[in-house]
Amino acid sequence: MSVPLAEDPPLIDAHTRRARRKDARPSELLSAALDLFVEKGYAATRVEEVASLAGVSKGTLFLYFPSKEELFKAVVREHISGHFASWSEEIEHFEGSSQDMLRDCLKSWWENIGATKASGIPKLMMSEARNFPELGAFYQQEVIQPGSALIARILQRGITRGEFRPMDLKYGVYMVMAPLLFLAMWTHSLDACCGPQARIEPDKYLAAQLDMLLYGFGAGHPPQAPANLSNSE
After folding, report:
1. Under a CB-based contact definition with an 8 Å cutoff, are residues 84 and 46 in contact?
2. What separation in angstroms does the CA of 45 have from each of 37, 40, 50, 124?
3. Closest to 190 measured CA to CA, from 96, 126, 134
């Protein structure tokens, strides 16, 4: 007696589910790894924990990522440096003012990184880069250098168009990066030490920082002579 045709769809559905499950594993592993790296740090996170949280075996994890170091690099590429290509494209075709471009830069960083768990990665690197210099070198090449280059392009555009005053681009970039790093550090560390009155509202904080940056960078506000910060005469 032949098997009724009605019995075939469940077999096909089961195969499809397995295929979809396999396709989803890398993203599930990266999501689990991000959670654990941010919560526990790089050194304390074990690949067995990542695999367990993702619902797969340790062997399955190693099929996709041959080591914890490669897993961490994939997390950084997925959640941070993976944004750089699209941000570069946006800068290339941006038609507004450089002030608006800088505003969009901070807004995009907050929406894509700052307001997500990925904002814990910079804090992790601050605490562990010296213990894992190979990861520090990777982060420098994969995140800091290209990220700094994007900010420098915005500032240089403003200078060229007369919208920003001439400046040392190296330190102009640091001025833009500093409040973003502080907000990430506050969110994942210092916020736990402060009461409700000291809490930072990210949108208001970034708006205040942008106001100060635009005033300082503005072509209509020439810089004054720097104050002497040394106690010596």
Report:
1. no
2. 6, 6, 8, 12
3. 126
| Cα separation, 224 vs 218, whole angstroms | 13
Find the radius of gyration of the CA atoms of the chain. 23
Mean pLDDT for 15-36 is: 73
* Spatial distance between the Cα atoms of 84 and 178, rounded to a whole number of angstroms: 19
What are the percentages of helix, strand and coil residues in the chain, rounded to 5?
Answer: 75, 0, 25
Sign of the torsion formed by the C-alpha atoms of 170, 172, 177 and 183: positive
Band (20; pLDDT cuts 50, 70, 90): very low
Q: Kindly indicate the confidence band of residue 197, based on its pLDDT and cuts at 50, 70 and 90.
A: confident
Query: What token pair was written down for 53?
Result: 């949280």
List CB contacts of 156: < 8 A, sequence separation 6 or more: 169
| Residue position matching structure tokens 């993203």 | 27
- Among 23-37, 88-102, 208-222, the range of highest mean pLDDT: 88-102
Q: How does pLDDT run across 92-103, given as a tens digit for each residue?
A: 999 999 999 999
Give the type of residue at 86.
S
Strand partners, 94: none
**What is the identity of the amino acid at 132?**
F
Closest C-alpha among 118, 126, 111 to residue 182: 126
The token duo for 4 is 């009724």
Please answer whether residues 45 and 37 qualify as being in contact, where contact means their C-beta atoms are separated by less than 8 angstroms.
yes
Task: Determine phi and psi for 4, rounding to 5 degrees.
Answer: -60, 145
